[in-house]
């Protein structure tokens, strides 16, 4: 494979990651308002709105958890491309159903479909990138994967906040489906997903890691080293805290500060921007100053302190500043963690990355549920408890001696 072909493949994979995370980002600032609108339409108790926001956030990674390892095993056997295509098809269906939903039930169905199919895109795309890059450049390419993901989180909230407030006086009902101005951001994401789907189908080359002449049985029996278990714990904690923060911040901004969806979107945009800028910087230059373990530990420390400080500031700009610090800590952790997981096994790279993604999904399930439950006692509880959790993980990591570099 020449350099030009490799760059083309990398570009297509990063494009797939970007559009999937763009759809995720579009929903972030609009979910509390969209859920409230559908809940009131269904005449549900307003006290249950935050519960549904947490559940709608959690149900997506729950179904990712159920299917992600299966997708990873299938990608090891049949190659990455067909699995990525399945994920993009599911993404388009989810966005269309979300945009045309007329009830919370339909919104739940859309999230379930999305969780099942999009669970293939991120881990399998990362496995594809690992297939075509050397171990020496693995951390750098995982940083660019993080940039694509973060870029979706940058532009998604801005697009979602803007398009959900566009003055489009269109109302059209087709059976159980309803088209109006709230549909616009999700249909926009579906259209982008459809375009990327056709591009990937036409130009992305497949990779097959298992020789077809050797029959392979799919086994779901795993053995984990202590090192890999530590990486899984770190993945769980990171995703638990990130999704708890995303869920709580959107409700916190709406109820405590009186933010509109645009202002909430700015917070997520800042978070994604910092991660997009800093991940490749840390991946390229971080190892010159700190080992992988020390970079991850520093990220845990910085993010933990910022979360604990979060509820003690009620100035909008100071809150945005703490989001920037929190994101900087995440930018230290993510590419180093992805690279470490991809280097644990050459033969089962897709499986291992999918197991890591699956572990992260458990955190994504529990984070929103615990976060919305803790809100009942006060907004400071979820921030302080999650911050303490990061600091506790920092202490545990400091005593672990088994990091490979």
Average residue-wise pLDDT: 82
Radius of gyration: 20 Å
Question: How do the helices and strands follow one another from N- to C-terminus?
Answer: HHHHHHEEHHHHHHH
Count of DSSP H/I helices: 13
Percentage of residues assigned to helices = over 70%
What's the CATH topology label?
Growth Hormone, Chain: A
Q: List the domain count as a whole number.
A: 1
Q: What's the quaternary structure here?
A: single chain
What is the 3D form? Answer: globular
Biggest sheet statistics: 2 strands, antiparallel
Any low-confidence stretches, pLDDT <50, length ≥5? Answer: 210-221
Largest sheet, spatial ordering of strands: 1-2
Number of strands: 2
Give the percentage of residues in beta strands: under 5%
What structural class do you assign from the helix and strand content?
A: mainly alpha
Beginning-to-end CA distance, first to last residue:
29 Å
CATH architecture: Up-down Bundle
CATH level-1 class: Mainly Alpha
Task: Give your account of this protein's structure.
The chain has 13 helices and 2 strands, in the order ααααααββααααααα. The protein has a single domain (3-206, 225-399), classed as Growth Hormone, Chain: A, CATH 1.20.1250. It is an all-alpha fold and 405 residues long. It starts with a helix and ends in a 6-residue tail after the last helix. The longest helix has 39 residues, at 3-41. The chain is 77% helix and 1% strand.
């Amino acid at each position: 494979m020449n350099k030009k072909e490799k760059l083309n493949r990398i570009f297509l994979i990063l494009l797939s990651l970007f559009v999937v995370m763009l759809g995720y980002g579009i929903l972030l600032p609009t979910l509390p308002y969209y859920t409230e609108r559908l809940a009131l339409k269904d005449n549900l108790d307003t006290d249950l709105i935050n519960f549904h926001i947490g559940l709608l956030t959690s149900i997506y990674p729950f179904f990712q958890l159920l299917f992600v390892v299966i997708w990873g095993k299938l990608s090891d056997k049949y190659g990455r491309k067909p699995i990525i295509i399945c994920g993009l098809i599911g993404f388009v269906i989810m966005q269309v159903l979300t945009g045309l939903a007329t009830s919370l039930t339909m919104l739940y169905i859309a999230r379930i479909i999305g969780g099942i199919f999009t669970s293939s895109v991120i881990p399998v795309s990362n496995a594809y990138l690992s297939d075509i890059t050397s171990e020496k450049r693995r951390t750098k390419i995982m940083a660019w994967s993080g940039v694509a993901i973060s870029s979706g989180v940058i532009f998604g909230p801005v697009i979602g906040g803007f398009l959900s407030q566009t003055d489009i006086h269109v109302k059209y009902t087709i059976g159980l489906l309803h088209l109006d101005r709230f549909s616009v951001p999700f249909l926009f994401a579906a259209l982008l997903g459809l375009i990327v789907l056709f591009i990937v189908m036409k130009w992305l080359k497949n990779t097959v890691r298992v020789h077809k002449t050797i029959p392979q049985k799919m086994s779901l029996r795993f053995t984990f080293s202590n090192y890999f278990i530590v990486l899984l714990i770190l993945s769980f904690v990171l995703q638990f805290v990130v999704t708890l923060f995303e869920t709580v911040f959107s409700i916190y901004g709406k109820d405590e500060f009186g933010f509109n969806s645009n202002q909430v979107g700015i917070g997520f945009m800042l978070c994604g921007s910092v991660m997009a800028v800093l991940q490749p910087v840390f991946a390229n230059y971080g190892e010159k100053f700190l080992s992988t373990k020390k970079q991850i530990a520093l990220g845990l420390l910085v993010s933990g302190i910022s979360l604990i400080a979060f509820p003690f500031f009620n100035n909008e700009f100071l809150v945005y500043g703490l989001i920037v610090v929190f994101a900087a800590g995440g930018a230290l952790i993510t590419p180093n963690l992805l690279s470490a997981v991809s280097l644990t096994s050459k033969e089962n790279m897709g499986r291992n990355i999918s197991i890591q993604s699956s572990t992260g999904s458990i955190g994504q399930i529990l984070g929103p549920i615990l976060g919305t439950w803790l809100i009942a006692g006060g907004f400071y509880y979820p921030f302080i408890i999650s911050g303490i959790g990061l600091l506790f993980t920092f202490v545990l990591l400091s005593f672990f001696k088994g990091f490979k570099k």
